[in-house]
Structures are given as C-alpha cells and as structure tokens.
UniProtKB/TrEMBL annotation:
This is Glyoxalase. InterPro entries: Glyas_Bleomycin-R_OHBP_Dase, Glyas_Fos-R_dOase_dom, VOC_core. It comes from the Bacteria. Residues 1-125 form the VOC domain. It holds the Pfam family Glyoxalase. SUPFAM superfamilies: Glyoxalase/Bleomycin resistance protein/Dihydroxybiphenyl dioxygenase.
Amino acid sequence: MLSDCTPIATLPTADVARARKFYEGTLGLTPLQEAAGGIMYRCGEGKLFVYESEYAGTNKATAVSFSVTDKQFDEEIDQLRKKGVTFLTFEYEGMEWKDDVMVSEEMRAVWFSDPDGNVLNVGTEM
C-alpha cells in the first residue's frame, strides 16, 4: 500500500543550474543523482527531485516542508537568514507572528520561496 512508501517531493524549475545553486548553496542539500532533466536530493529519510518544467513557480501554496526539532529551528533559520533568504508572512486564521516567524503552542515555522517561486516551509515537529 502507498502508506508504506516514502514519498518524493517534486519541485519544478525553469533553470536547473539556478535551482542547483539555491538548493545546494543556500539550503545545503547534497545531490544524490542527476536524471531525467533534474536533480535528486536526499533529505533525511525522504527525497526531493528538482526538475525542469514550463510550469515552474505556478503553485502558490506550500510545496515542501522540512521538519526540524525545536532545538534545530533557531540554528536553521539563522543560517537561512545569513544566506539572504527572506521569509514570507501572510494572514491565516489562528496564526500569530513574531516578526517573520509563525508561533503557536504546537510549533514554530517560516515560509520562503525558491528562485522559481515555489513555497518552502521549515517548521518544528508537532
């Protein structure tokens, strides 16, 4: 059954070289392999496939979430800020913000865009 399978997140890009610079240089991902017009990255126990597509950046909702522990959160967010990542804020019922970090009793989270406009999220485990 699919519930036993590990999903692979897929993100479109208009420019594989530009995406590679962001995912490897900014996010620190290591390529696992190159195939079918894209690059596969390992992320924890999952994978992320970034591939060339004319539809890059058309999804305006969160495309990929990275789950970190509460202890890791501040370090990860500081590293992203140092690399020039700007976090997004938005109105959504029940969300409270401390500057550009969403905070609640259950979690903390940030959202940001890759160079193609795909929305990524880093949040603490619930």
